[in-house]
Design brief:
4 strands, 2 helices, 82 residues, alpha+beta, Thiol Ester Dehydrase, Chain A, elongated, single chain
């Protein structure tokens, strides 16, 4: 409608990149998201994710095809109590 991406969509793209094994055995403890720039209708979007194994966190970067950073986030996952 406004021809730009809603902020919640950036978080969905970040969470979509989390491996199933993490989602199945952990819960999302915290998320720190930063919205930097708008993605426009028709932009090609790439979601980059790097894992920090020592604390089970992930660093996310959402970029457009011309390398403009639209959003960043850090997600921290804690093991589910069984």
């Amino acid at each position: 409608m406004n021809k730009h991406v809603n902020n919640i969509r950036y978080l969905q793209w970040a969470l979509d990149s989390i491996p199933d094994e993490i989602i199945d055995n952990n819960y999302l403890h915290s998320i720190d998201g930063r919205f930097i720039a708008e993605a426009q209708y028709g932009d090609e979007i790439t979601s980059f994710t790097d894992r920090n194994i020592s604390d089970n966190s992930f660093v996310h970067t959402i970029r457009t095809h011309n390398n403009k950073i639209c959003a960043t986030a850090i997600t921290l996952w804690k093991e589910r109590v069984k």
